[in-house]
Amino acid sequence: MTTVGLDAAGASHAFDDASKRYVPPWRNPWRRPYVLASITWAYVLWSLVPVLISIQFSFNNSRSRSSWVGFTTDWYLGTNDPNSPANGASIAQDPALLRSLENSVTLAVMTTLLTVPIGTALALGLTRWRSRASTVSNGISLFPLVTPELVLGSALFLVFNTMYSSIPLGRPAMLLGHITFSISFILVIVRSRLVSIGPEFETAAQDLGATRIQAIRTVLLPMLVPAIFASAMITFAASLDDFVVSNFLYLDAKNITVPILLYSAVKAAPSPALNALATLLLLGTLAALLVTYLVLRLRRRGDGGSALDDLADIEM
Amino acid sequence: MAVAETAEGKADRATRFLWPSLAIPGTVWLILLFVVPFYGIMAVAFSSQLDILGQPIPAWNPLQWDFTVMRQVINESISGFYRPSWEHTFVYCFLAMMICVLVGYPVAYYVARLAGRNRGLLLALILAPWWINYLTRMLAWVGLLGDKGYVNEFLGLFGVTPVDWLAGNWYVVVIALAYGYLPFFIIPLYAYLDRIDQRLIEASRDLGANSFRTFFRVTLPLSRIGLITSIVITALPMFGDYYTNTLVSNSPATTMVGNSIEQSILSGFSRAKGASLVLILSAVLLVFMAYYLILTVRSSREAR
Question: Which of A50, A158, A308 sits opposite B124 (nearest CB)?
Answer without folding.
Answer: A308
